[in-house]
Amino acid sequence: MKARWLIKIHHIHAILVGLLLLSGLSLFIQPVRTFFNEWKIPLVAIHTWIALFYIIIVLLSLKKAIKYTFKKPTLKKFNVHFILGLFLAWSLSGAIMYFQAHFPVPVRNTAVTIHDTVTWIAIPWLLIHSIGHTLKLEIPWPLWWKRHAKKPEWVQENRLQRRDFIKSLSLITIMIFIGGWLKWLTPMLHASNETNRRRGYFRIYNVTNDYPRYENNDWSLTIDGLVEEKKVLTIQQMRQLKWNTIIDDFHCVTGWSVKGVELTGVYIRDLFEAHDIKPKDKYITAYSGDGVYFDTFTLSQLVDEEAMLVFELDGAPLKKAQGYPCRLYHPTMYGYKSVKWIERLTITDERDYGYWQQNGDYDLDGYL
């Protein structure tokens, strides 16, 4: 009876791990992630719910699984311990990513790196394990490893005790964190003297698999809605205004951050003053040039809280995938409020939900 129960759990476990890997890879691979966005499928929420169900299944079956494998050959014990190691790394790093607002930037970035690394470790294991069971392939393991057979003397002499296991686990954990920390530090170590040194790296997220391309300075910003006079401002007019440079930390709601980013552009309050823009109401909707993405703000959030239109990042024009030639930036909000390829600001008398509030249950204000 116990064996049948464990077989069922094993199959459920395999299905859940497969779904986690598929949804996780879909989030990691930009075109696939964007495909789900275009169809308004909440992939992040799906991935999170699968993870929660997986954690519950593992915790419920943990005691019986360990008891069942206690007298089993070394191979089965190793398999269980290996899965538990992946489970712990996934769960802890995933929890930090989900509650990332409560952790400092180095911890967040390390958690993201660990989560990715564990996934890439799990993929070959899952393929080998699945193909081996499906085709009934026998890997030529030593008999003492896969069956109850006499172990070689060198194995018996170096038999691990509980304290050895704890030491090994601690060492592995330390090495994972060191690896994650070094990856987080890499962009700063490889920066040239002329480049703004920063920690972390950007991950590009779009909601469409294509993005607008502006050639020959054909970009313009329209300010319309409840204003005294509609304005259409060209890139040349933007260059005539006072540009400001700030150094700030860029934070994504998915857990990663980039420290010390140099952002250059025009404060929205300066733009409104210079062109005598007088809103007649207190809400603003910012529209992206991709024709899909938008987000909403109160007028005070953009005018009084030093929001800016950014044209340069780290002393160079924005890259196309980063929102060239212009994106919105608010210093105390998450990156999803930073509308890329911004083309229009519309003043309204009511505040609507933005793209991610409608499709991903994100916070309307998005404060850090």
TrEMBL record:
Transferase as a keyword of this entry, yes or no, is: no
Q: Which residues form the Oxidoreductase molybdopterin-binding domain?
A: 211-356
User: InterPro entries of this UniProt entry?
Assistant: OxRdtase_Mopterin-bd_dom, OxRdtase_Mopterin-bd_sf
Source species, domain of life: Bacteria
Question: Which residues span the membrane?
Answer: 12-29, 41-62, 82-101, 121-144, 165-184
Q: Name one Pfam family in it.
A: Oxidored_molyb
Alphabetized, the UniProt keywords read: Membrane, Transmembrane, Transmembrane helix
Protein name per UniProt = Molybdopterin-dependent oxidoreductase
Source organism lineage?
Bacteria, Bacillati, Bacillota, Bacilli, Bacillales
